Amino acid sequence: MMKHLEGRNLAHPGCLIGVTLGLIIGIVLAGVLASVFNVAFNTVLLVWLGITVGLGMIGWIWGAYLTTRQQLAAMRANAAETSEAPERTTKERQNPNLPAGQ
């Protein structure tokens, strides 16, 4: 599964999951606050918005953290693979069909 996500930025899916959970939890909590505790409408809206934005930010940060960990692991794996292969010059990387002298 991690091979499919290699090189992808996970901050955006993390934010999407966080905002979705924030909307669901925020709407349920706002309904409970409004109906059971008779809290003012402005307060209910602020709680809902705070939960939505807060969980979205947490998801963004968590996704960015997972991305950096994943990229570091991929870089280490690539370094291990390339250390076994012979080093190629820049010209060979640009056009592998040409000899190195051209």
Automatic annotation (TrEMBL):
Keywords, ordered alphabetically: Membrane, Transmembrane, Transmembrane helix
The membrane spanning regions, by residue number, are 12-37, 43-66
The annotated regions of Basic and acidic residues compositional bias extend over 85-94
Q: Is Transmembrane helix found in the keyword set?
A: yes
Query: What are the start and end residues of every segment in region (Disordered)?
Result: 77-102
Entry protein name: Uncharacterized protein
